[in-house]
Amino acid sequence: MAIYRTSDCTYGRPRITVELADRGVRVNHKRVGRLMREAGIKGVSRRRGFVITTHRNKRDRPTPDLVQRHFKAASINQLWVADMTYIPTWAGFL
Q: Which residue range or ranges hold the HTH-like domain (predicted)?
C-alpha cells in the first residue's frame, strides 16, 4: 500500500511488482494483482484505446480534393493546407 500511495496512486501490478523486487521482496505478479483487487486499488492506465473523434454521416459525399494531391505550389500563397491532429490528455483532446 505504501508503494501505491508513494506513486500518487498511479502504479499498477507490474510497477508495484518491480518496486517490491528492487526492495528485495520476492513476490509473483499474480499475487500482487490479487492483493490489489482485494484491496480495491487500481493503477492508472495511460492509454484508453482508440477513440473516434469524427462522426461522419455516411450519406454525405466526401469533401472534394481541390489540390488533386499536388501539394507543391508554383508561388507563395497559392496553396494552403492544414492537418487536424488530436492529442489526448487527461482533460480531453487538444
A: 2-48
Please provide residue 31's backbone torsions phi and psi, each rounded to the nearest 5 degrees. -65, -40
Q: Which three cell numbers stand for residue 22?
A: 528492487
CA pair distance 61, 59, nearest whole angstrom: 6
Cell of 20: 517490491
Paired strand residues for 93: 88
pTM of the model: 0.50
SS3 89: strand
Rounded CA separation 74/85 (Å)? 27
Q: Do 11 and 4 form a contact (C-beta atoms < 8 A)?
A: yes
* pLDDT tens-digit map of 14-58: 999 999 999 999 999 999 999 999 999 988 877 767 777 777 788
Domain boundaries, the chain: 2-39
Grid cell of 93 as nine digits: 483532446
